[in-house]
């Protein structure tokens, strides 16, 4: 049974990551979520406008194609560079703003 839980194996700690990388990854994930949320809200506004304009709700029938906002590689690299300059102690504050 001990072999099931790997009790006999030495504990392996994952290597510590650079705080700047953690902050950058966190801020980029937040940015990605914000983009997806903005797209979702835009779709909801478009659906509501269509519903008001036609007076009929066909949203259950039609599947709308998912349009995705994308940024260029250069812009993404610039954002990642900017994010890496944020001190770890300010990461939460940046996300709140």
**Helices and strands: which structural class?**
mainly alpha
**Biggest sheet, open or closed, and with what strands and sense?**
none
Instruction: Give the rounded overall mean pLDDT.
Output: 81
Strands, total number: 0
Task: Name the beta content range.
Answer: under 5%
How much helicity do the residues have? 55-70%
Shape: elongated
- The end-to-end distance, rounded to whole angstroms, is 51 Å
Roughly how many Å is the radius of gyration? 22 Å
The secondary-structure element order is HHHH
Given the structure, what is the number of helices? 4
Low-confidence stretches: none
Account of the protein in words:
With 97 residues, the chain is mainly alpha-helical. It has a domain at 19-59 and 71-96. It has 4 helices and no strands. The longest helix is centred in the middle third of the chain and has 36 residues, at 19-54. The N and C termini lie far apart (51 Å). InterPro entries: RD3. It comes from Poecilia mexicana. Pfam families: RD3. This is Retinal degeneration 3, GUCY2D regulator.
